[in-house]
């Protein structure tokens, strides 16, 4: 019931909806024309590819938006539509999320969506971020993040929104909610999701210091559940999924709802205020300056 409410609530996706393509294991592609897309950037190619294996009931959602799978409004909209479609497909019981990019799972929220934008646009963007989390954290499907690269901030949020996390055993990859390092503050529902995952003390340290954990350190604090060699991330996720799907759906779903309902309800009952807070915070001159400095740091690091 909770999950249905969440779904209904999240269905209204800020008016920017895309065509959705889902590929079956046998290469069949069904394009649903039931949504119309208002393109917001130059790229018209799908940022997400979904393959649903009808024989196992497991879908693999691949993020494929170079260079770093940053979560722009377009990306989030496409992500939510795909999730919604899978959620409504009774044959789909499990979802694995991974990346097609080498080295990066997701760089988190697209900083350019928060820098130099109008309050209206920032509000629209934040609503899409909320929707992504509500849909994922409240999903009826068993969800596994197959983290095959770095996953800071919003990428970490997406990972901890899943039921289980498998990460590539590569010390160069990092994961965490590093918002304070950018001079911004993770909202209460980011914090709640992290607390639910690693406990209060680890979350406090992690959030205040904006820590990014190497894969082995992330395993130590329980931010991820398992490390495997890089080339086995997806296959391990598929093996693990079969264990999750061996549990009767209704029992797993009710238990998941029991664990997550309070956290989800908190955002649902404060959604508008959360958007207002985000917009007034992110459009402040001092915060815009912090974001600019961070962007410059990213560019100079690259140079
Ligand atoms: N948004 C937009 N552009 C980005 C982002 C991003 N999050 N991350 C990287 N880019 C850009 C870079 O600037 C670079 O652009 P260009 O090619 O034009 O110079 C390009 O992507 C490639 O980046 P890198 O060269 O750094 O790629 P690497 O493969 O070397 O590294 C990393 C990949 C590790 C992901 C690295 O890019 C990185 O650390 N990125 C920053 C990640 C980050 O800090 N994200 C935080 C986003 S904020 C967030 O998600 C939550 C905000 C909550 C807001 C709450 C407010 C109230």
* Count of domains: 1
Helix content: 40-55%
Count of beta strands = 12
The molecules bound to the chains, other than polymers, are: octanoyl-coenzyme A
Q: List the total number of helices.
A: 11
Low-confidence stretches: 1-42
How much of the residues is beta strand, in percent?
Answer: 15-25%
In CATH, the architecture is: Alpha-Beta Complex
CATH class: Alpha Beta
Q: What is the terminal separation in angstroms?
A: 51 Å
Q: Which class of secondary structure composition applies to the elements?
A: alpha/beta
Q: Give the H and E element order.
A: HEEEEHEEHEEHEEHHEHEHHHH
Strand order of the largest sheet: 2-1-3-4-5-7-9-12
Mean pLDDT: 88
What's the short version?
It is built from eleven helices and twelve strands. The protein is globular and about 50 Å long.
Task: Tell me what the structure shows.
The protein has helices at 2-10, 73-88, 119-137, 154-160, 188-198, 200-209, 215-221, 233-245, 249-268, 271-282, 285-302; strands spanning 20-24, 29-32, 48-53, 58-63, 94-99, 103-104, 142-147, 149-152, 164-168, 174-176, 213-214, 226-228. The longest helix is centred in the C-terminal third of the chain and has 20 residues, at 249-268. Helix 1 (2-10) packs antiparallel against helix 3 (119-137). Helix content is 47%, strand content 17%. The model is unreliable at 1-42 (pLDDT under 50). It starts with a helix and ends with a helix. It has a single domain (14-269), classed as 2-enoyl-CoA Hydratase, Chain A, domain 1 (Alpha-Beta Complex). The site of octanoyl-coenzyme A has 28 residues, from strand 6, strand 8, helix 10 and helix 11. This is Enoyl-CoA delta isomerase 1, mitochondrial. It is found in: Mitochondrion matrix. Its main location: mitochondrion.
């Amino acid at each position: 019931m909770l999950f249905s409410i969440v779904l209904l609530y999240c269905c209204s996706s800020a008016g920017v909806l895309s065509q959705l393509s889902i590929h079956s294991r046998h290469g069949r592609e069904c394009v649903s024309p039931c949504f119309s897309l208002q393109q917001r950037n130059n790229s018209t190619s799908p940022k997400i590819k979904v393959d649903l294996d009808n024989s196992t009931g497991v879908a693999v959602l691949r993020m494929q938006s170079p260079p770093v799978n940053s979560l722009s409004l377009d990306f989030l909209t496409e992500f939510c539509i795909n999730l919604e479609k899978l959620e409504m497909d009774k044959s789909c019981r499990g979802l694995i999320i991974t990346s097609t990019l080498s080295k990066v799972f997701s760089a988190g929220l697209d900083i350019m969506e928060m820098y130099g934008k109008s309050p209206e646009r920032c509000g629209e963007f934040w609503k899409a971020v909320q929707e992504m989390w509500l849909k994922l954290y409240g999903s009826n499907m068993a969800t596994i993040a197959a983290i095959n690269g770095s996953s800071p901030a919003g990428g970490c949020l997406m990972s901890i929104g899943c039921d289980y996390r498998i990460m590539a055993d590569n010390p160069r990859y990092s994961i965490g909610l590093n918002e304070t390092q950018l001079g911004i503050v993770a909202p209460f529902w980011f914090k709640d999701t992290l607390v639910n995952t690693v406990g209060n003390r680890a979350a406090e340290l992690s959030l205040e210091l904006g820590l990014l954990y190497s894969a082995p350190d992330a395993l130590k604090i329980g931010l991820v559940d398992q490390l495997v060699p890089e080339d086995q991330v997806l296959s391990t996720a598929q093996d693990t999924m079969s264990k999750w799907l061996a549990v009767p759906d209704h029992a797993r779903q009710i238990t998941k709802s029991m664990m997550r309902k309070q956290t989800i309800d908190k955002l649902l009952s404060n959604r508008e205020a959360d958007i207002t807070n985000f917009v007034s915070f992110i459009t402040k001159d001092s915060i815009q300056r912090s974001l600019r400095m961070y962007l410059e740091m990213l560019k100079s690091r690259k140079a």
